[in-house]
Amino acid sequence: MKIMGAVLDMDGLMFDTENLTYKLQREFLLKEGKNFSLEDYKKTVGKRAADLPEYFKTLFGNSFSYEDFHQKCRTVYVQYTEAHGVPIKDGLFELLDFLKSKNIKTALATSTTRRSAERTLKIAKVFDYFDALVCAEDVENGKPSPEPFLKAAQKLGLPPENCLALEDSFNGIISAASAGMVTVMIPDLIEPTDDIKGKCTFILKNLKDVVRLIDE
Description:
- The protein is about 45% helix and about 10% strand.
- It has ten helices and six strands.
- It is an alpha/beta fold.
């Protein structure tokens, strides 16, 4: 397996931000008298921001203002992470240091905005590890389209088939597999279905396992 590049998702893969986001959103909605289950939240994982207003209207009705909800939760999230930092997944620094030591080019492919992504990477002190960033505004079609991963490979100057794609969401796996990358799922909140398993080259438990995979 000739791996020349690695393309990483962000939330749920490098950082335990999905659990944090759910906690903060649930607390906000409970104050509004609305129940928001973990199963409800899981359906938002990997979705583009543009698709979320309609989903929340199916939960809470057409009068629900997703924009207001998102802005208030975002403010709380920013305050929390400024005070406590970003929760980092086990093995992240070990993996990034390993990729650097092997001269494996590294890119980010995230559905979040560049402003948010750069802020998170800098708080976690991993921004300088990345050779390229592909964020929400960099593509016309987000995940599950292959465009984010194809653009990441293009920015790295590498063929997609020589890139390892690391993802935790279903849409991310579909995107990476469709781009022709060596697709690795590290499940976070959602375990893979049989269909998703069929799109994965490997399914690993954590980021440390990726080091062992490449180093074999």
